[in-house]
């Protein structure tokens, strides 16, 4: 008995010493280069232009988008897979990408939908979220980020037809696999031309998932660190986080506004035009490269990186 206590004490001392010696300096999140995100958007615009003007479910521009994003991630050393599903008589695809390493029982996931509506190329909705998480993923590799948690990305199909891809993904997971996902962060429309800076309200889902409030606060802290005021928004299950929330997984996200009208108070706080929609080209053919606010796009990309580094480190 005695020797066990002594041994335990010795181990504790050794452990403490080791921990001190091995503790790395806290790695700051990289500042994401907005020009890199714009370059990805230009690729998505080119893919739409070459495929009948859209990147919609069941149309060739969608699968071309999946293949292009996949090629970038494969080149950066991610483990990728394409999950297919069927909706409305057409095959849909989700792209799943795992960053090597980290605790497989403690997964942080980021996602956004890669499909557009049929009426346009979907550059703000949701080229922006898709391109931003792609650039953040590439910067994980470029900065040699070694998070303690496992990080996974998802680009979802057929969101515009009722969140079909993200639901297919969550439904494909066993209860054990679901329980390993501790957080899901969703990015859908992060470069609206008349932008607001909205963070998903972590209390939207009832009963409230405590981890969702933590993610909300972290996203708010990210914007605050860049001096950007935010408002909470009730997304009311209008994007892909809904499937994760329904599975009891903590979720959060950011949004720069769609068809709703910017108020005078919001224009005073954020600039832009009161009395006008956050995105006048929402679900229209004019959702092109000229439908992007560069500052909103860059700030959101920075907050995505900031929040991922803070959540997964
Ligand atoms: Zn969307």
Automatic annotation (TrEMBL):
Quote the protein name from its UniProt record.
Answer: M20/M25/M40 family metallo-hydrolase
Q: Which residues form the signal peptide?
A: 1-21
Q: Which GO terms describe its molecular function?
A: aminopeptidase activity; metal ion binding; metalloexopeptidase activity
Name the species this protein comes from: Lentzea alba
Q: What is the lineage of its organism?
A: Bacteria, Bacillati, Actinomycetota, Actinomycetes, Pseudonocardiales
Classification via CDD domains: M28_SGAP_like
Keyword field contains Chloroplast: no
**Peptidase M28 domain location:** 94-305
TM ranges = none
């Amino acid at each position: 008995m005695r020797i066990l206590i002594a041994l335990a004490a010795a181990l504790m001392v050794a452990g403490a010493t080791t921990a001190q010696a091995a503790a790395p300096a806290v790695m700051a999140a990289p500042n994401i280069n907005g020009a890199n995100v714009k370059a990805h958007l230009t690729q998505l615009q080119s893919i739409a232009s070459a495929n009948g003007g859209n990147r919609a479910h069941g149309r060739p521009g969608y699968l071309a988008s999946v293949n292009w994003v996949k090629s970038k991630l494969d080149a950066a050393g991610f483990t990728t897979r394409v999950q297919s599903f069927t909706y409305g008589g057409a095959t849909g695809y989700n792209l799943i990408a795992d960053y090597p390493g980290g605790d497989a029982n403690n997964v942080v996931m980021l996602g956004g939908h890669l499909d557009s509506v049929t009426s346009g190329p979907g550059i703000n909705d949701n080229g922006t979220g898709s391109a931003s998480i792609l650039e953040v993923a590439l910067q994980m590799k470029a900065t040699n980020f070694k998070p303690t948690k496992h990080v996974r990305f998802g680009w979802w199909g057929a969101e515009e037809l009722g969140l079909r891809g993200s639901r297919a993904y969550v439904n494909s997971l066993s209860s054990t696999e679901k329980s390993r996902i501790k957080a899901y962060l969703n990015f859908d429309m992060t470069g609206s031309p008349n932008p607001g800076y909205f963070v998903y309200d972590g209390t939207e889902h009832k009963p409230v998932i405590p981890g969702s409030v933590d993610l909300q606060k972290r996203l708010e802290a990210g914007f605050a660190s860049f001096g950007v005021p935010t408002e909470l928004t009730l997304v009311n299950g209008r994007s892909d986080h809904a499937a994760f929330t329904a599975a009891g997984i903590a979720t959060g996200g950011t949004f720069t506004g769609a068809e709703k009208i910017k108020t005078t108070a919001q224009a005073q706080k954020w600039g832009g035009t009161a009395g006008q929609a956050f995105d006048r080209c929402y679900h229209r053919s004019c959702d092109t490269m000229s439908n992007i606010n560069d500052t909103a796009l860059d700030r959101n990309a920075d907050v995505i990186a900031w929040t991922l580094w803070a959540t997964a480190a």
